[in-house]
Amino acid sequence: MLPPRDWADVCDTTEVTQTIAALSLKGGVGKTSVVLGLAGSAAANGLRVLVVDLDPQANATSSLDPTRTPYTTSDVLFDGRTGVAADAVVPSGWDAKVHVLPSERALEHRAESNGPDSALRLRRTLSGVSDDYDLVLIDCPPSLGELTRNALYAATDALIVTEPSFFAIQGAEQALESVSIVANNGNPLLRPLGIVANRVRPTLSEHAYRMDELRAAFGDLVLGGLPDRAAVQLAQGACVPVQRWTSNGAGDINVAFDRLLTSIVPASAAMNATISLTSPTPRPSLATTLRESL
Hints:
Layout: H1 7-13, E1 18-23, H2 31-44, E2 49-53, H3 59-64, H4 73-79, E3 90-91, E4 98-101, H5 121-126, E5 135-139, H6 146-154, E6 157-162, H7 168-184, E7 191-200, H8 205-218, E8 222-227, H9 230-237, H10 248-264, H11 286-293
Parallel strand pairs: 1-5, 1-6, 2-4, 2-5, 6-7, 7-8
Antiparallel strand pairs: 3-4
């Protein structure tokens, strides 16, 4: 397991936009909710955010409510050229500071390896594109397959989302192992940010026991738990950030998201400085590539 990285050490050598891949081993733990909560918190704190929806279920895309989605992550991964993701990024319906690279069911067709550089396609297509943002959040599918490998090769950090359950430790261990493998085989910038448990009810003895179990196993890598609040699902269903939802429950979860953001995006106000990696060579548009493939 790799130790958490001091973000300042990276900035001393290469200035890049912090890119967080949120991953989990199973569905139903609220991984997308965590991504959306962090996006809303970051925007509320003045950061420009890009959400990359790499889950074929496209739940993040639905909740972010873009007015148009001419291209998706499926098209982008099919194309694979440097910086081509710029053609697919669209504004969200939330806020001018939040943009989205949308998903669709067809992304399932990209879930298998299709060549020696298959896992590097997202990284290449985002090159230069992420420079326009202070933070990039990648919502991975609930597995450690090819799409999640693409996310890890494109990311600077991995956030593992779990739940206070019997399977939490096993899932976190497998996710951390995958992060270590990618970090040692092609993406030396990648480090585990930590493990966050979602939908925690501290008054339940089972949840308290599992949180203690996680801390005993992973120590400081455990970032704590996010409370179980109905406001999260209600806000997502209304296609608005939970930060705009008015209820006592929303207030609790928003404080938790702000704390989580602060703990994983240090010196976020200084994250504006990024270098441009965009190739100066003109490239055909994504539309041209797709049309030529027909």
